[in-house]
Amino acid sequence: MADKLRVELTGVPETLLWNLYHRAAEARRPDGLLDDPRAVELVDAIDFPFERFGQPAMAQWHALRVLCFDRAVRRFMTAHPGGTVVALGEGLETQFWRVDDGRVRWLTVDLPETVEVRRRLLPDDPPRRRTLAGSALDLAWTDEVDADEGVFISTQGLLMYLQPDEVRSLIVACAERFPGGTLVFDAVPHFMAERSRRGGMNPGAAYQAPAWHWSLDPGEHRKVLEYSPKISGVRDLPYPRGRGLLRIAPLVGRIPLIRKLRMPIVEVRFAA
After folding, report:
1. For residue range 98-114, what is the model confidence (pLDDT) as tens digits?
2. Terminal C-alpha separation, the chain
3. 53: which residues sit within 8 A by CB, 6+ positions away?
4. Helix (H), strand (E) at residue 218
5. How far apart are CA 262 and CA 219, in angstroms?
6. Which keywords appear in this protein's UniProt record, sorted alphabetically (predicted)?
7. Of 129, 180, 122, residue with least CA distance to 151
8. In order of start, what are the domains of the chain with their CATH numbers?
9. Which candidate, 212, 150, 149, places its Cα nearest to that of 12?
10. Does pTM top 0.90 for this prediction?
């Protein structure tokens, strides 16, 4: 057996391993919701103490989240054959291999230390799939996007680590640079962000995720319309149906007592 690749990351970049760990755990299940063999291969190929993340209790939730993003990307690819997906802060997400239709162009943008790991494990395959090292906030990546056939921007697991003014500036910049494009992001409710800043998200655990700074409660997504006149529409995307208690996942946003617990996934459309 080949030697495993040792990975040492801290802070926000380390969250890519936490996300990967949960996706792979769900993909390993015989009744798993997520078909993601590449995620399983990556966990098996990495030398890292994944046990410090504890039991993958959130694996199914991770699967529902990424499946919601997958559905949004597939809708884009159907409407814009040969279009470009820009994945900001993609980490070790393996979405390309789950949704690839043989025509989509894919640009990954992430921090240099993350890109180094990604390139060692998931080498580029130009011209359709490329990786760019840099901050999503730098905006230099916008010059690398071929927008002729449409643009879809994904910010999965990213915005909550930014400051509120940074989030607003990023969304406005995307709206200005990519008319007719689409942005999909996930967010955390206010109470979860406040709790994370107090260090109370996972008390006693070996792993503590970095604090979340930006938050958005379910139902607040229409506030994004106020960011720019170049934003033409916004909607809160429903989660897919899960198993067990999460069979009601598509309906959670409509149940008053628990809807505030939901982490919203929001689709933003830019004016043409």
Report:
1. 999 999 999 999 999 99
2. 52
3. 17, 18, 21, 22, 206, 207
4. none
5. 10
6. Methyltransferase, Transferase
7. 180
8. 67-270 (3.40.50.150)
9. 212
10. yes
